[in-house]
Amino acid sequence: AQAGCILQNLDDHVAQYGFIMPLDLGAKGSCQIGGNISTNAGGLRLLRYGPLHGSVLGLEVVLADGQVLDLLRTLRKDNTGIHLKHLFIGSEGTLGVVTAVSIECAPRPSSVQVVFLGLESYAAVTQVLSKARKMLGEILSAFEFLDAECMRLSTRFGSVNPLGSAPTSGAGSSQSGQIYPFYVLVETHGSNGAHDREKLDAFLEAVMADGEACDGTLAENAHQASQIWKIREGISEALPRCGAVYKYDVSLPTPLMHRLVEEVKAQLTQWPGASVLGYGHVGDGNLHLNIVSPEAYPDLKAKIEPFVFEWVSNAKGSISAEHGLGQMKADAIYHTQSPLAVDVMRSIKRLLDPQQILNPYKMLPKG
């Protein structure tokens, strides 16, 4: 595929041949596969199909001096020398310009099931994840979580909560339903609908019987599944409509993910209009932390950033799980990487781009 292909168009194309793109994003209708490769995008189904470092078989890259490096392969195994393609996956265009990609596509699942659960605590979220891994095993494709603030925001701007019917006060509307402290979206991909439903029924029975889930629903058709996914994907679309948004995309040990959200809330009590929301790919430890304020207060950002970065660093996490560092977070790289690691990155950059013309000032700190 050429780098400028829209991800959704690629998925539609391979669907004609019975395959599915291994990457799925909320922005799939506009993002390009070349940009996905350059930022090492993770997406919603990394839990099932793995990262791009595993599914990308080959690349074509234009180097800084104009030479075209042809690494386009379709081999699963090729152990002849250094695996150069990995240098360009996630390097944010600083080492070369990706112009084409060969990517391994999995067989398209004939059975797609979606479950939505309401829970009382984040501890219950991690317990349900453990059960999902054990009981759903090979068919588990996505495991997403969102907190109550996310649900209120998403339903405020058009999504419908499928759990309960009692209206709630605050940001929610009549579409909010019963608000639980946490929600989990579980998706499975399989080849036998009856088999998958049987496994899901046993999973639902177990999490309900053990008190880990308070309520839940299993989508009966593709429309209901789409409406459930709309809750999760509608969060990022709704955020800018509420004011200034401060976004952080971090990786953390799964038990600590929502603790960071609570810690940030405690830090922002002097800004009563600020809201803190947490959601993300709990199946692979990726938290999307968002702070929304009616106005863009400079002192608010100054309070957030050192705290979030230092907290994540102390927890042995990463300050960028899947969105990269770009220009705004380049100087924060030392919260995750050692000085020696950064020096090695600089050496590679100087070797491949001695004139510093490819995406300058991105990813690596100045100096």
Q: How does this structure look, described?
A:
The structure is a single chain. By secondary structure, the protein is α+β, with helices and mostly antiparallel strands. About 35% of the residues lie in helices and about 20% in strands. It contains twelve helices and twelve strands. The chain has helices at about 5-15, 35-40, 45-50, 50-55, 85-90, 120-135, 150-155, 195-210, 220-240, 255-265, 300-315, 340-350; strands spanning about 20, 55-60, 70, 95-105, 105, 110-120, 140-145, 180-190, 215-220, 245-250, 275-280, 285-295. The strands form three sheets. Strands 9-6-8-7-11-12-10 form a seven-stranded antiparallel beta sheet, sandwiched between helices. Strands 3-2-4 form a three-stranded antiparallel beta sheet. A hairpin with a 5-residue loop joins strand 2 and strand 3. It is globular and about 60 Å long.
> Sheet with the most strands?
7 strands, antiparallel
Question: Shape from CA axes?
Answer: globular
Number of helices: 12
The N- and C-terminal alpha carbons lie at a distance of 37 Å
Oligomeric form of this entry?
Answer: single chain
Order of strands across the widest beta sheet?
9-6-8-7-11-12-10
Instruction: Provide the succession of SSEs.
Output: HEHHHEEHEEEHEHEHEHEHEEHH
Q: What's the β-strand tally?
A: 12
> Mean pLDDT, rounded to whole units?
92
% residues in beta strands: 15-25%
Helix content: 25-40%
Low-pLDDT stretches are: 166-174
Structural class: alpha+beta
Radius of gyration, in Å, reads 21 Å
